């Protein structure tokens, strides 16, 4: 199995070929003056969307150590991911996802470090880039994200400086291979919850990772174990019993039950800080300022 295919097996999401379209400034930077197509923020966003790079990394076990034979990481744990910079940001954000404030899995730590280094080398000084995945509306009580993955590169701008900002989205999509029975279960479990779990665990890629890729299989099982524990589901047992589709159905049902009614929140006149609750999009925000 080639290195690029191994990375696809582990990616846990499928990112569309296009990195997205610039759509303006994020709400936190919307008040900044001179936001426009000619700003350095927009130019940086275009660089992220159009530039490709290879990120080398090592799979990390649940204990936070590189999968290794002795002191040196085994060849099967060493990977190279090829993608645009925006796609790398989106992958890192989704792989870092937490549910209801749970601790993120350490299995993506080395990939995140590689993405940070690669993006930092590509952007200028006085630049902040942040990618965020929030597939569900915020919690009704305290406004915190129910599911969130994020990665940030660069310093925060000084409070007193003029900031330029640009935002674009990177499409992420689960496997398109779904049976009729799975469509029925998706409707019963809640569409947004099912799509969220499918982005985290694309069943076709999970199945491929479990066929002869021992390092990737350990990472996948750890991610199932951690999210299942938060949702009160033995996802690993479901995985062993019926494969990734069975495990995904169990997780989606539990997520939908926990956050029943969040697919269509009541309008309150205030925008949801978590966005529209779209599992299929990672938002990338670029902010730049003068020295």
Automatic annotation (TrEMBL):
Phylogenetic placement of the source organism: Archaea, Methanobacteriati, Methanobacteriota, Stenosarchaea group, Halobacteria
Biological source species: Halobaculum saliterrae
InterPro entries: DUF7284
Region Disordered, annotated ranges: 250-281
Name of the protein in question: Uncharacterized protein
Superkingdom per UniProt: Archaea
């Amino acid at each position: 199995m080639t290195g690029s295919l191994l990375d696809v097996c582990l990616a846990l999401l499928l990112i569309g070929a296009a990195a997205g379209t610039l759509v303006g400034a994020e709400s936190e930077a919307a008040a900044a003056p001179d936001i426009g197509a000619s700003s350095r923020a927009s130019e940086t966003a275009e660089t992220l969307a159009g530039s490709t790079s290879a990120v080398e990394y090592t799979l990390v076990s649940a204990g936070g150590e590189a999968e290794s034979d002795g002191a040196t990481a085994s060849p099967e744990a060493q990977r190279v991911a090829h993608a645009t910079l925006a796609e790398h940001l989106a992958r890192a954000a989704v792989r870092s996802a937490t549910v209801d404030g749970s601790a993120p899995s350490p299995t993506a730590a080395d990939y995140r470090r590689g993405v940070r280094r690669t993006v930092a080398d590509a952007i200028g000084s006085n630049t902040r880039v942040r990618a965020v995945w929030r597939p569900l509306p915020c919690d009704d009580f305290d406004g915190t994200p129910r599911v969130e993955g994020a990665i940030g590169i660069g310093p925060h701008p000084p409070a007193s400086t003029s900031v330029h900002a640009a935002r674009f989205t990177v499409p992420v999509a689960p496997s398109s291979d779904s049976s009729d029975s799975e469509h029925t279960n998706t409707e019963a479990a809640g569409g947004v919850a099912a799509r969220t779990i499918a982005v985290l665990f694309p069943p076709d890629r999970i199945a491929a990772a479990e066929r002869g890729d021992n390092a990737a299989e350990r990472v996948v099982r750890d991610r199932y174990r951690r999210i299942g524990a938060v949702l009160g589901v033995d996802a690993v047992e479901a995985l062993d019993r019926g494969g990734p589709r069975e495990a995904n159905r169990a997780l989606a049902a539990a997520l939908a039950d926990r956050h029943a009614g969040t697919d269509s929140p009541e309008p309150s006149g205030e925008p949801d800080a978590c966005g529209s609750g779209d599992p299929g999009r990672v938002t990338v925000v670029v902010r730049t300022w003068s020295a």
